[in-house]
Amino acid sequence: MRKILRILGKTLIILVAVIVLAIIIVPVAFKGKILDIARTTLNENLNAKADFTDVRISLIRSFPNLEVELDRFYIAGYEPFEKDTLVSLKSFRVALNPFGVIGKKGIRVKKIILDHPVIHAVVLENGQANWDIVPESTDTVSEPVDTAAATIPPVKVSLKKFAIQNGRITYDDRQGNMSARLNDLDFLLSGKFSGDSVTLDMLTTAGGIDVSMDGIRYMHDAAFRFTATLGADLENMIFTFLNNELSLNDLVLAFRGTVAMPDDQINVDIGFATQSTSFKSLLSMVPAVYKTDFQDLTATGNLKLDGYVRGQYIAADSVYPEAALNLKVQDAGFSYPGLPKSVSDVNIDVAVFADGTRPDASTVDVNRFDMKVGENPFHASLHISHPVSDPAVEGKFTGTIDLGTFNDVIPLDSTSMSGVITTDLAFGGTMSMLEKEQYDRFRADGAIRFNQLYLATPEIPAPVDIPSGALLFSPRYVKLNDFTIHIGRSDMAFSGNLENFIPWWFNDQVVSGNLAFRSHMMDVNGMMPAGSETEEADTLPPELALIEIPDRIDFVFTTSVDSLIFGNIMADRLKGKITVKDKKASLDGFALHSMGGNILVSGDYATVVPDTAFVDLSLAVNNIDIPSAYQSLVTLQRMASFADGMQGKVSLRFSLTASLDKTMMPVLTSINSKGRLQSKSLQLVSGSTFDKIRNMLKLNEKTTNTFKDLDIGFEIVNGNIILEPFKSKLGDIPVTMGGEIGLDKMVNYDITLDIPRKYMGSQANEAMNNLFKKTTLDLKAAETIPVVAKVTGPVNKPQIKLDLSQNVKATATAVKEAVKEKVEAEVEQKKEEVKIAVDAEKEKLRQEANARADAFLEEAGKRRDEMIRRAELEKQKAFARADSLEKNASGTILDKIKIKAQAEAIRKAAAVAHDKTVRIANDKYKKAGEETEKIRKSWEKK
How far is CA 152 from CA 57, 143, 149, in A? Predict the structure, then answer.
């Protein structure tokens, strides 16, 4: 018996040791295989790139469960989301019970933990979403049943814990013009499982929530907490809110009701209401109030906030549940200790109803929104109905808002504001009235006036000052009257009309306008948010941000700007017309002075594609200074570094199409341009190519480095500058050049130089003289030596190959030309003598003809002037006679009227006669001019 026990004991020890070894060795031994399988499976089943740095498998950490952990897991999209990471996690842990395979009960997932997840969800303007990464099934043929696979037990979820630790979620809906962000997100889900009935406990917290829509921020850094106990009937897929509480800052809501998902539809019946009736809890939703000593605030008044979501959600049929929200505040106010003024008489009555099945039945009713800030009352009301078929709006805004009073009401810390806004505006009618131009039926009267407004806060780059301005409303348009804005050093004045303003505001239609824009100084840098420093800050100016053209506007700006600062560009005397429509700005005859020269621009700048701009421009640039342009334009520094070290002025005529990235830099492969560059004098202060040629040919120090009379045709295609062959002079050295300069700073071009011998060294000159002495003619060596240089490689370190074979051809040609020139010289001499005599006779005849023509034209002019003088004199006499008749008129009123009509008839007849005589005189003078031209050309027939 002992022997059996010893054997069993040893066997048990060995078995335990084997299991322990398996727990340690198996994950290590098969780690590489598991990594490959996991990566392959992920990428084969996603239209995205998924990867992770490591995988760990353990049977110890969650024994008896198996725990799998992925490190640095991420999913990144393909075009057009190749630059966006959809999901990234510090780690992803799953605990499961694999031993269900033995009993064929299935693998049960027990725990899932997401550590530091970052989710960036994006919807483009066309509705494409970056999370749509699961490919649709294209299988149309039934596959044979895999009996082996059919025996593998299924994976079942039997969660006891699901947790998100320190997450961040960003939602960017560019189609709906909405964005939201949750920071410091923690989520814990646990439950008690009993068959198909489950009780789930949830706890969600977020350190800050930001929500913006249509450029308006509705939440900023709001604290969020949601605790809930849900009863889940998994068999019927019914979830019931048992005990729950949602809080945003100090506003706490309780939920009740159920959510059922029996099939493809979702049945919702949820109601909510505030647990607190204190007005202070609603104030916590105002960022400026909540972030500033909120605990010290004293508030009075009652609050009631409730609502519901009820009905069916059927995605396929675009059926949504109906929703309602009601908010009432009565006789409320608040004040801060130590501040002299308060907000009082707050009364709010808002009811919002959204009908999911009949959207046109939805309504918004702001029945009352009243308050008094200090001593200044403000009243508003707004009603919207029939939002789909024919939106009807009615509203009224009256009151005075003294921004300076807010400093006495709310502790604003680093924010400073002052000035007065007065409103007296009432409107009412339907969108169809405006669309049909029935302006007499739509009521829109009143104005919003601004007086000495000032705002300075760390959230804006420079203080905003509006000395004066008014928006005058009518059904047809809104008139901007004396609207002036100062932002930092910049000043802007607008005047003109905005049409379709109300449909734009309430119904997302297009607002149009004709505006005159005037500015003495536009410092764009001072109006842009401060950017982070780049690694290139020591060598290049800071990068610019892409300027987005807003949509839903159709403006025509008549622009006049005295001075402009944009990046490193300084310009003045900007004038022209800018049309902004469909996210595109079109420039028509836009002129400015910059970089020492004048620039004329026409064309389009469009930002239809997100984070990208497209330009289609025609530019005429006259006499810009190259050093100034190189220092001002980051594009020139990065794309044409060979311009560094050049001195002089150039003129350009070129057309350009290109895409710009979000730093306003052209995408090299998208550039297409064609044009011509001209310069009277361009100096190479430091030119590596010509310096190398000078050294290779041993040219003396008299060789100049200044090009004369440049006229270069060029074309930019697929990122390369193609130079048409052109002729110029490097000092008095004739130069022919052509080839290709890549925007990647690689060159491939040819240079031909006809170098005068005076620049050559003594050995080269002696060799040329000896060569010509061997001929039988009395010849001198050629005064110039042709040199061909092949230039390739990087622009700053080019490789140069010289070809001097043209010198031999030049010698042979010189011998042939010497004999030919001797004969031709004698013939040319005789021709020149005859030509001189003929030209002298021609000049004599031409001068005589011109003298006769001048005398004839002078006489015709005198005759014309005399006719016009006489006609004018006759007209004056007639007018004097008519004036005398009217002055001396007598008799009855009827007699005076007759005399007055007679006088008018005299004046009219005199004016007609005068005009006729002038016309005849001018016609005769014109014919005399034509005859004069014939006289001038008469000498040619002789």
Answer: 21, 18, 5
Q: Which residues contact 269 (CB under 8 A, 6 or more apart)?
A: 257, 258, 259, 308, 309, 310
pLDDT value, residue 194: 54
The label of the residue with tokens 């008690």 reads: 192
d(CA 74, CA 81): 14
- The strand pairing partners of 449, in sequence order, are 422, 470
Return the structure tokens found at 527.
């109006």
Contact 457, 414 (CB under 8 A): yes
Q: Classify strands 464-473 and 66-77 as parallel, antiparallel or unpaired.
A: unpaired
CA distance 186 to 188: 7
Kindly report the number of other CB atoms within 10 A of residue 103's CB atom: 8
Q: E strand or H helix at 871, and its extent?
A: helix 806-887
- Is the N-terminal amide bond of 80 cis, ω within 30° of 0? yes
d(CA 81, CA 58): 35
Mean pLDDT per block of 10 residues along the chain (942 residues) reads: 44 44 50 62 72 74 72 82 82 73 56 87 82 64 44 53 88 82 87 70 85 73 85 84 83 87 86 81 69 73 90 80 92 84 90 90 94 91 92 92 85 83 92 84 89 86 89 86 88 88 76 88 77 38 66 87 81 88 86 81 85 84 70 52 62 82 77 81 63 69 70 79 81 81 77 76 54 48 72 79 61 50 59 64 73 77 82 84 80 71 83 86 82 73 60
Phi, psi of 536 (to 5 degrees): -90, 15
The pLDDT value recorded for residue 41 is 63
| 687 DSSP assignment | -
Phi, psi of 500 (to 5 degrees): 65, 30
392-402 vs 343-354, strand pairing mode: unpaired
Q: Is the peptide bond before 542 cis (omega within 30 degrees of 0)?
A: no
What is the rounded radius of gyration, in angstroms, for the C-alpha atoms of the chain?
44
- What is the 3-state secondary structure of 184-206? EEEEEEEEEEECCEEEEEEEEEE
The answer to whether the CB of 604 falls within 8 A of the CB of 586 is: yes
Q: Please classify residue 127 by burial: count the beta carbons closer than 10 Å to its beta carbon, then call 0-12 exposed, 13-18 middle and 19+ buried.
A: exposed
- Can you tell me the distance from the alpha carbon of 43 to that of 47, in angstroms, rounded to the nearest whole number? 7
- Chain-centroid distance of CA 543 in Å reads 14
Do residues 296 and 283 make contact, with C-beta atoms less than 8 angstroms apart?
no
b/e code 752-779 from CB counts within 10 Å (16+ = b): bbbbbeebbeeebeeebeeebeeeeeee
User: Among 338, 469, 486, which Cα is nearest to 407's?
Assistant: 338
On whether the CB atoms of residues 845 and 851 are closer than 8 A, the answer is: no
Q: What is the pLDDT of residue 395?
A: 92
Residue 849 tokens read as 């003809």
Pairing between β-strand 107-115 and β-strand 155-173 as defined by DSSP bridges: parallel
* Letter string b/e over residues 335-355, b meaning 16 or more CB atoms within 10 A of that residue's CB: bbeeeebbbbebbbbbbbbbb
* Alpha-carbon distances of 927 from 354, 861, 930, rounded to whole Å: 82, 11, 5
CA–CA separation, 855 vs 847, rounded Å? 13
- Supply the pLDDT for residue 933: 77
Per-residue model confidence (pLDDT) at position 159? 64
Instruction: Report the distance separating Cα 872 and Cα 500, nearest Å.
Output: 55
Q: In sequence order, what are the beta bridge partners of 738?
A: 750
Residue 537 has what pLDDT?
33
Kindly state the helix (H) or strand (E) to which residue 94 belongs, with its residue range. Answer: strand 85-97
What's the CA gap between 772 and 272, in Å, rounded? 109
Bridge partner list, 416: 456
Are 76 and 106 a contacting pair, CB within 8 Å?
Answer: no
pLDDT at 366: 95
Beta pairing, strands 155-173 & 118-123: parallel
Compute the distance between CA of residue 122 and CA of residue 132 in angstroms, rounded to an integer.
10
Nearest Cα to 379, choosing from 408, 348, 403? Answer: 348
